[in-house]
Amino acid sequence: MLYDWANSAYSIIITTAVFPLFYKAAATDAGVSAANSTAYLGYTIGIATFILAILSPILGTIADYEGFKKRFFRFFFVLGIASTAALALVPPDQWLLLLIVYTLSAIGFAGSNVFYDAFLVDVTPEHRMNRVSARGFGMGYIGSTIPFIVSIIIILLAQKGILPLSAATASRIAFLITAVWWGVFTLPLLRNVRQVYYLEKIPNTVAASFQRLGTTLKDIRRYRTLFLFLLAYFFYIDGVGTVITMSTAYGSDLGISSTNLLIILFVTQVVAAPFAVLYGKLAEKFTGKTMLYAGIIIYMAVCVYAYFLKTTLDFWILAMMVASSQGGIQALSRSYYAKLVPKEKANEFFGFYNIFGKFASILGPVLVGVTAQLTGRSNLGVFSLVILFLIGIVVLKLVPETEAPSQTAQRLPLDR
């Protein structure tokens, strides 16, 4: 769970808040237009997403063999913190190099998460998975706020001239804080977590892994439960991700100041923490699937409420609605899936989970953009996301209510 605490600093400082502003300033100083710099950042995110989506099931299949999961996790973790720290060393006029280093950090961050998520089957029995996964997300929200607050204070004090630093230097310090925070709080996982479920090592591991992956894809019909859940996950998590990533832009369209948006972002992180834990506890009482239904319905209400949004107070209410379910729906998706997969092949299947999660980040933003352009109204763009949640909840309904993971594992074909 401390790894959620550790790497969530990257999510808010590098992905969401500080790095995009730092990069935009560097690109502008280098003479790159605002439109082009935004497009280049979008291309960069797309490239990193595509690379991880392709690599995840391949590396995950190899990592199912004894001893490989920790190695792959360590490689991506080191790549992530090293390149995050390296962002502080890129000269201010080298905006293209900045994007290259950012790509490496994003691959390290997302790649390590594939194996971290798969470790869920190794660290807790099935009846505690919902609670452990939810607590991890809750710790992540709290953990991300501490380095974020420190970084923002340094940047604001530098901007006001209280600290003898330029805004660019203050941002670089934020990158170093992120790398150090991420590295230090990952040590418990590196020292204490072990791969419990695995396949025995065999000769020609890589070739055998590709053969297993091919068998999985060829016999996809045997994985009906898993496939249906991933299909449902693809749609509803796309809606969740789109609300998160586009909320700031939507707030700006309403005339909400950047300062207020940062404050709302911070409070959302804080409020999301206890609600993520609450989802885990309620899942033990009402089942994880029931709580997933609850989270999806709340997000549908968010999209409807967004249609009528007019004031800053309305946006605060919307943000708190998101905070109430944001962590819970992600945490329970992870634990619900972990219960379905055969434990000795968890890495391979979490590789597919990563693919569906990554490519799910495409449809929602496009739907919002097209709807907003055709109608000329941003609120209708957000409202259109109801479609994704409706599809997600309908497909989730098709997933069997109860199925013992051990039975699922017995039905799935292993090595041949």
Provide a compact summary of the structure.
By secondary structure, the protein is mainly alpha-helical.
**Backbone CA Rg:** 21 Å
Major sheet: size, sense and barrel closure? none
Overall SS class: mainly alpha
Could you tell me how far the N terminus lies from the C terminus, measured between alpha carbons in angstroms? 35 Å
- The percent range for strand residues is under 5%
Mean pLDDT comes to: 84
Low-confidence stretches: 403-416
CATH superfamily: MFS general substrate transporter like domains
Number of domains: 1
At the fold tier of CATH, the topology name is Growth Hormone, Chain: A
Keywords: Membrane, Transmembrane, Transmembrane helix, Transport
Membrane topology: Multi-pass membrane protein
GO cellular component, one term: plasma membrane
Pfam families: ATG22
Structure explained in plain terms:
- This protein is mainly α.
- The protein is 81% helix and 0% strand.
- Helix 6 runs antiparallel to helix 13 and helix 11 packs antiparallel against helix 12.
- It is globular.
